[in-house]
Amino acid sequence: MKGNLDGVISCVHHNTRPAATISWFMRDGTHDIPLNSTTNQTLSADLITFSVTSEMAIGQILLLVNMQSLVLLVCKSHNPYSVVQESDSKVLLDISQNDPFEKQPDLPEDPVYAIQNQDLVLECPLTIAVEDSIVLWMAKSLETKNSGYLIYSAYGVVPSMDTDEQVSLDKSGDLVISQVGLQHEGQYACVHSTVNNTKSFLQRVEVIVQPTPSKVLVEGCKLFQPCSFYITETKTITCKVNGVHPEMELKIKALSTNLAVINTEVSTYEDEGLFYTSIYGDVIVVDDSCQENGTIICQALGPAAYIFKSDVHITISSHREKCPQISDAPLPADKAVWISPYYIIILTITVASLICIVLLPIIVHIKHRRNRRHLDQLDSRVFDVEKKLDDSKKDNYELKERLAKQEEGHQKLLKINNDMEQYSRRNNLRIFGMKEDPNENTMDVFVKLAKEKLKLELNTDFIDRCHRLGRSTPGHILDPY
């Protein structure tokens, strides 16, 4: 909590009898330094127990610390007659005058990228061991600009806090965020405080969410099959990326000299932190080209590009009507040409080489398309398996959470039951040294004892129950009541 140097901090212990003794201490490693405080006790509403309040002025802490801005305070309660004789409560007090996010407004240029539903570890560069210092983690949302305390470690001990259950600390003081979500995106500050110094380290976290499905989509093409179009003059191509974070840049460009992409237009909208981006472009055939096929590419650029299939190649087929054609008319008789057999051999070898040169890329392209189809199918299966695995992890986490809550409720019920049993015994009386007789009536024995020894006029209407404790042994002296 943030400490106002002019304010006070209070500690209250309710429903104790007799009244508990409360004291304030400042913990310095393994030592507890006592602090001055004022105590006040009041009678509780049940008119039986007491409530004790101890107030301590925060300003006196400045006399005990040097350059330390994080102080661990301990409120100890002592009651020798209670079931739990000793108890304490701890609070981490931040007495610094500056917000670490305002003190260092310049964030690192390169953020820490975290993939959704995976674990993230943020390192805190410590110069002194965790056991000899206090480590506090704070978070600040990039949208709301509000900062808050997350979790802390005081001299190697991590107390339980009512914060995000996905946040924890490891033995090195590093922050561990399990199952990262968009809500964890923002700035994080690690404040490291010792007796002689206090430093803070800032990091910026950006969460990456892969699109659904995890690839660039092309309108008019099937999801896991090669994409191709036939055009005569022009064709409008639309590429999309759905539900990705952070926002990505989409580009569409021609990879072949016989094609060109013009009139490109990009549209983007956001829904619950996820971005949906589309790009439109007109593909045209270059007039002075005689190629029949060409390729264009739709490509997504951004931090999330490396976790999904961020590009797609599109085959464009066109006509060749505008290419010059070779005439099939025979040469005139006066233009007849004699061709040497050597030229025929060379021509045959050249044609065969050209055929090999042409066929080889086609065969490679066919195999490439077949391999690409298999890879797309494998990508789909891997995506399904990863989704099922994420769902299983989520179900396992929810079951662990329910079990922890049930265990906590069980412990509370045990404590309440123990308190009720102790409270119910306040009117019980136990008598020692009474000889046991066969077939005795313990109620009559006690009434006779009260009249003869205690001079009390009692009858059985005053007693709810009366019995001996332990195994019945006539003639022995046991604890009867």
TrEMBL record:
GO terms for cellular component: external side of plasma membrane. It is a single-pass type I membrane protein. The chain crosses the membrane at residues 342-364. Its main location: membrane. It is found in: Cell membrane. InterPro entries: Ig-like_dom, Ig-like_dom_sf, Ig-like_fold, Ig_sub, T-cell_Activation_Regulation. One of its GO terms (biological process) is immune response. Coiled coil: none annotated. Residues 105-190 form the Ig-like domain. Keywords: Cell membrane, Disulfide bond, Glycoprotein, Immunoglobulin domain, Membrane, Receptor, Signal, Transmembrane, Transmembrane helix. This is Ig-like domain-containing protein. It comes from Stichopus japonicus. The lineage of its organism: Eukaryota, Metazoa, Echinodermata, Eleutherozoa, Echinozoa.
